[in-house]
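Hello Y.,

Per our agreement to keep a running log of every chain we model this quarter, I'm adding this entry. I've kept the format consistent with earlier entries: sequence first, then predicted structure.
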Amino acid sequence: MKKVIPCKLCSIVFGTLLIVQSVNAGNWNKNSGSEKVDDDQYAQIDKAGNGIQWRLRPTSLISRVEQIIFVPDPLGSDDQVIQFEVRHGDCGENKQPDGSKWSDCDGGKDRAEINNRLPERGEVWYQWEIFFPKNYLSISPAKNIHSQYKLISEKNKKKNSRKYLFFEEIKYGLFFRGQKLVDDVRGKWTKIQVHANWTTEKKGFLRVYANGELKFRNDGYATLRPGYDAVRTHHGIYRIDLYRYLKSRNLKVAPKQTVLYKNFSISRTKPD
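Predicted structure for the entry above:
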């Protein structure tokens, strides 16, 4: 059954005060917003997902409730739009299934993401649209990842997830595995479709379309690595290697970045 985020929900108000800290390049301090994301806000994200069961990834990674909110479409459509915002210091920490701990703050990383609670396997179609504002500032040579496919193990819940495939913005272009999908993503909606067959057998494939045009194709290989049996998707903003950006410009604080998403779907057949 096709799972699609509807376009009827109005904006959700998350309350609040921004506390932005000045941070030295060698010392990341986590932002502390006035409120934490609560269970009601999780429920509203899930309601908007209409079966996809999105969640904020997870609460401990969200520094400020303003990081993920619903906003009007800047181009005037009635579609529901999810806005992701990251400011310097929006890092978080979490425990891995094996009990180990990690922290974005230790590695110069910021993020605001949602992921799908339900793992995917077999043949799947993914679709979403992404919008970068005209005043969006690139953080190259640091990396800015906007959609991830992470390998997980349903059989071994204690096995840590593994970053596998991702879409990244580099100097305003959108890339996937080194292949440029779009030259300049600012000020317009870009539709992305991913057609994948997640399998440990050599009949897997991965195809990526940008605005209806096939841009990447890899067929006839095992798309799941040994020890992993499913994939979980993540969307939003995940900034890594920010020290490279700060050093290249002799700065102490990275710029705020905002990215918008709409019309998510995950289905077994090609979406409309």
